Amino acid sequence: AVNKERHFSCEDCDGNVSGGFDASMSQIVLCQNNIGNQAHMNRVVTHELIHAFDHCRAHVHWFTDVRHLACSEVRAANLSGDCSLVNEIFRLHFGLKQHHQTCVRDRAILSILAVRNVSKEVARKAVDEVFESCFNDHEPFGRIPHNKTYARYAHRDFQNRDRYYSNI
């Protein structure tokens, strides 16, 4: 269970970071001075909850293995809505072929550079090494929730998950 008083902290943050996951406290930090609207907050919370999920599920070595961090950043960028078409248009980034994958790669690299003191080449190499398997890992959603309809489908799938597995 998530205790919103213990597991979420709203703080003023330096720079343009919108949030973060503090593994030592199992706490999500929301940067109240850098989140401008509800949609942005929803993406940040989802992004950080994916890190929390990975922390519990995969025992991520956040500070000793950059590939662990890269995998969680790929998953968070892929599943949180960071790379939605609307967000990419606002960033003036858009394309047709493999655009979602390109965005996920770029956002994961930027996130690594924001939290670790590594070169862009090291971050890019780590993302490239883990990209395929981590991009295709859609847990806990089961699918990429591209919009509200897909999010409802993912929630329905989650609710029916036990029924499906009990018949196997």
TrEMBL record:
GO terms for biological process: mitochondrial protein processing; mitochondrial proton-transporting ATP synthase complex assembly. One of its GO terms (cellular component) is mitochondrion. Its EC number is 3.4.24.-. Keywords: Hydrolase, Metal-binding, Metalloprotease, Protease. GO terms for molecular function: metal ion binding; metalloendopeptidase activity. It is an enzyme of class 3 (hydrolase). Transmembrane segments: none annotated. It comes from the Eukaryota. PANTHER family: MITOCHONDRIAL INNER MEMBRANE PROTEASE, MITOCHONDRIAL INNER MEMBRANE PROTEASE ATP23 HOMOLOG. Belongs to the peptidase M76 family. This is Mitochondrial inner membrane protease ATP23. It comes from Crocuta crocuta.
